[in-house]
Automatic annotation (TrEMBL):
Full protein name: SigE family RNA polymerase sigma factor
The UniProt record lists the keyword Ligase: no
Pfam family, one: Sigma70_r2
Gene3D superfamilies documented for this protein: 1.10.1740.10, Winged helix-like DNA-binding domain superfamily/Winged helix DNA-binding domain
Annotated InterPro entries: RNA_pol_sigma-70-like, RNA_pol_sigma-70_dom, RNA_pol_sigma-E_actinobac, RNA_pol_sigma70_r2, RNA_pol_sigma70_r4_t2, RNA_pol_sigma_r2, RNA_pol_sigma_r3/r4-like, WH-like_DNA-bd_sf
GO molecular function, one term: DNA binding
């Protein structure tokens, strides 16, 4: 790993962007923009290959390599040995790839998982169609059969409660209920 000089305590305002001062106040050589441009042209593909070994998609690899060049560019004045710029870039690509993988893993852990009983859009549409068909079939039943089935199965009443509400005997509730279910079965199975 290349040695990087610490940030100077204070920068003189007359200092050139590609130069920095060392601890003695003398001008220290840093990686120049031209050197970084040459490094980019010569090694972009190899760094992209390095990222591809660590990551699984091209877009992420390109992002990591671009970010590595941006970071080296902004720290170019702190690189004491410009010939080690490529090593610094490689290490930055590896570190950024690790960070990308960590973020992905964390994202997967934090993703809310769908409820197992959640219906898909298609299932919801089919359920709606079936409900509409059931309503149409219920409308075709005799009035008492429809009343018994609605109170018994949709209002969740017992047979005794249905008999009381409708003012009919318990035997009549059972008879209307069984005939209504049979008629519904026939109506639901018949082609539309």
């Amino acid at each position: 790993m290349p040695v990087i000089a610490p940030w100077p305590a204070s920068r003189p305002t007359t200092q050139l962007p590609s130069q920095s001062r060392d601890a003695d106040g003398a001008m220290a050589a840093g990686t120049t923009v031209d050197h970084l441009t040459e490094t980019y042209r010569a090694h972009y593909r190899s760094l992209l290959g390095l990222a591809a070994l660590l990551l699984d998609d091209t877009a992420s690899c390109e992002d990591v390599v671009q970010e590595a060049f941006i970071r080296v560019h902004s720290a170019r004045n702190r690189v004491r040995e410009p010939e080690k710029t490529l090593a610094y870039l490689r290490q930055t690509v590896v570190n950024l790839s690790r960070s990308t993988l960590r973020r992905r893993i964390l994202g997967l852990k934090l993703l809310s998982k769908p409820m197992p009983d959640m219906a898909s859009a298609e299932e919801g549409a089919y359920a709606r169609i079936e409900q509409d068909e059931l309503k149409k079939a219920l409308r075709k039943l005799q009035r008492r059969q429809r009343e018994v089935l609605v109170l018994r199965y949709f209002a969740d009443m017992t047979e005794a409660q249905v008999a009381e509400v409708l003012g009919i005997s318990l035997g009549s509730v059972k008879a209307y209920g069984s005939r209504g279910i049979a008629a519904l079965r026939v109506a639901m199975e018949a082609p539309a």
